[in-house]
Design goal:
Layout (H helix, E strand, L loop, with lengths): L19 H23 L5 H6 L9 H32 L1 H18 L9 H33 L4 H30 L2 H21 L10 H10 L3 H18 L1 H13 L3 H28 L3 H19 L12 H13 L1
Helix pairs in contact: 1-5, 1-6, 1-7, 3-4, 3-5, 4-5, 4-7, 6-7, 6-11, 11-13, 12-13
């Protein structure tokens, strides 16, 4: 049966007329695509910081070297931040299909070439190539995921919240299982294979997008919505919430380059075990996210939950080390694992 709906306004998103079976297939392909994109972003967490640290000519754990390695992780999110707004403006003209396909190809190519960066011995050349590849991956991720959400909104205009929540579940699952899978592959087969495997899977996912997705434009350029958005971000409260989101994201992001070398040096854990610790962290996050949504809808105002979450995260971060202000607290692996779980819950 064909599903159609009447226009509710000049700028309202219009559903693409598709059968329910076709919609289900598209949703599955788009969801799996989002999962693979996030796996490609997270597979380097368990082992790459240690591998990169060994190439630093100033020796392991130099401040400059660790900062440079940290930027390899952060440049991806930075490029997503720069690219995503432009993708939103381009989508009404190009349609989401070609944008998703191009994004998938960029992610696939960047992650596949990254498999060979460990063969570069020169420190500066190594850093430049890593920055370039991760930047391309960030652009591809922004293209892919932004277009994914736009496409699904075009197909399910009356179920935006539900579709967005399910899509975020796919994305969260990718972040959750990426480090665990790559850690085991790295332990058994070395540096290159995790990148090559998921680069190939991402290439196949891009091909599936090209074959399965409809070519119709599913979004119209909504100048009124853009004006409302630009006006909204001028409010002080909006800026405050954006700053809070930035701080929370930075607190979580610092774990990616820092926790793996710390755990491997301090407790002699393997990359696969580091991946499992990140798996626990992400699992707690995925469990707490819908529960927080229910609580905020029914009982507690969101601003109080934001404060509570920040306090919980602070406790986890303070005891992860732990910091010296608490005195001579002995370090233990179980304490670090518990702290990672607390941070995930926050």
């Amino acid at each position: 049966p064909e599903e159609t709906s009447e226009s509710s306004g000049q700028h309202a998103p219009q559903p693409i007329p598709l059968t329910r079976l076709r919609k289900g297939i598209i949703f599955f392909v788009v969801g799996m695509n989002g999962l693979f994109v996030m796996i490609c972003l997270s597979i380097m967490i368990p082992f790459f910081p240690t591998e990169a640290n060994e190439k630093d000519p100033q020796g392991p754990d130099s401040v400059a070297g660790l900062t440079a390695i940290g930027f390899i992780f952060s440049i991806t999110a930075f490029m997503e931040f720069l690219t995503a707004p432009f993708v939103g403006k381009v989508l009404p003209k190009t349609g989401p299909k070609i944008v998703m396909f191009l994004g998938g190809l960029l992610v696939s190519g960047a992650i596949s070439i990254f498999a060979f960066v460990d063969r570069i011995d020169d420190w500066v050349t190594f850093l430049v190539l890593c920055y370039a590849l991760r930047a391309v991956q960030g652009v591809g991720t922004a293209l892919n995921l932004t277009a994914s959400f736009a496409l699904l909104v075009g197909i399910y205009p009356k179920s935006v919240s539900l579709v967005s929540g399910i899509m975020r579940a796919f994305v969260g699952l990718g972040i959750m299982i990426g480090p665990a899978l790559s850690g085991f592959i790295y332990d058994e087969h070395g540096f290159a294979l995790p990148f090559l495997i998921y680069g190939g899977i991402m290439f196949l996912s891009a091909g599936a997008i090209l074959v399965v997705l409809p070519g119709e434009v599913s979004a119209s350029e909504d100048k009124k919505s853009w004006e409302v958005l630009t006006a909204t971000i001028k409010f002080p409260w909006t800026i405050m919430w954006l700053v809070i989101s930035l701080v929370v994201g930075a607190a979580v992001g610092l774990l990616e380059p820092a926790i793996s070398p710390y755990l491997r040096e301090e407790f002699k854990v393997t990359p696969s075990e580091v991946g499992l610790i990140f798996l626990l962290h992400s699992t707690i996050y995925i469990i707490c996210t819908p529960l927080t949504g229910v609580v905020s809808d029914r009982w507690v105002k969101p601003k109080y939950l934001v404060v509570l979450g920040a306090m919980i995260q602070s406790v986890g971060l303070l005891f992860l080390g732990p910091v010296r202000i608490f005195g001579p607290i002995p370090r233990a692996l179980w304490k670090s694992i518990l702290s990672m779980a607390i941070i995930g819950g926050g």
